[in-house]
Amino acid sequence: MKNKLKTIYMGTPEFAVPGLEALYKSGHEIGYVVTQPDKARDRGKKIQFTAVKEKAIEFGIQVLQPEKIKGNEEFLEILEEYAPDLIVVAAYGKLLPPEIIHLPRLGCVNIHASILPRWRGAAPMQRAIMAGDKDIGVTLMYMEEGLDTGDMIAKLSTPILRKTAAELHDEVAELGGKLLLEKLPDLESGNITREKQEDSLATYAAMIFKKDGEIDFSKTPAEIERLIRGLDSWPGAYSYYNGQPIKIWGAEVIEKACDVPYGTIVNVSNEGIEVSAGGSILLITVIQVPGKKRVSVADYLKGNQIKIGEVFNKID
Fold first, then answer.
1. What is the domain class of 213-300 according to CATH?
2. What backbone phi and psi angles, to 5 degrees, belong to 197?
3. In which band, very low, low, confident or very high, does the pLDDT at 1 lie, cut at 50, 70 and 90?
4. Which of 92, 87, 94, 88 is nearest to 13 (CA)?
């Protein structure tokens, strides 16, 4: 380490914690951690700190939680007075205004959870799984005013296989911390080869909403199975059985032609619920009914019935 850099770290959820740990481990000075305001949970009974704030407190770093950053002169003055050499961002949750992006002399860098330029935007891991991508990863990039459009510094990837978004989350987050730690000496020395993104290859990872989890059984079993993995653990893929919502957490593809109406239950066993989907069959293996935990279909059938011939997605 030539000199100890003055840095600021901006992040909010669990995904951003390994990056903060890496920056702390590097030995550089972290003047402030900036994170989203605390939120109430359990219907307002208890205030919950962000994951990044909890880690910052553990490390003894001063935390800033502005309600807004755009047009917030008081917040900007604090950053300007500190005069950081580098700002590191990971899933902070708000777009940074130009005056913050251009403040540090070494730039503002972002740990983004995709292999850019594919999947710019809010939900790259979920969208990659849902699209059937083979790999996911992280890109360390310089920030600019566009959405994840800045020059790339380096990338790391990992195979998706049949992992869920929940399983990939921690794996990709750790890759982000590892990549930052590897590249900090180059950022410090200026020994960086900037790679411009090919905009024609860019795809957009739109934010996920609860309604995105509703299963359309006219889609192929493979598409539905990817949706289920992509939305685990939030918001979860779901349908309706006898007018009641039912979450579906596990499924497999059965390569067998089926010409009954989409969503129709064609067989039920301890192996799972076979449902007509996109001209073939989806085998549902793990479900969750309101007020209960997720269970295997075999366990659910010990005290409940699922009837052949009934239809998912049909609200009575």
1. alpha beta
2. -80, 145
3. low
4. 92
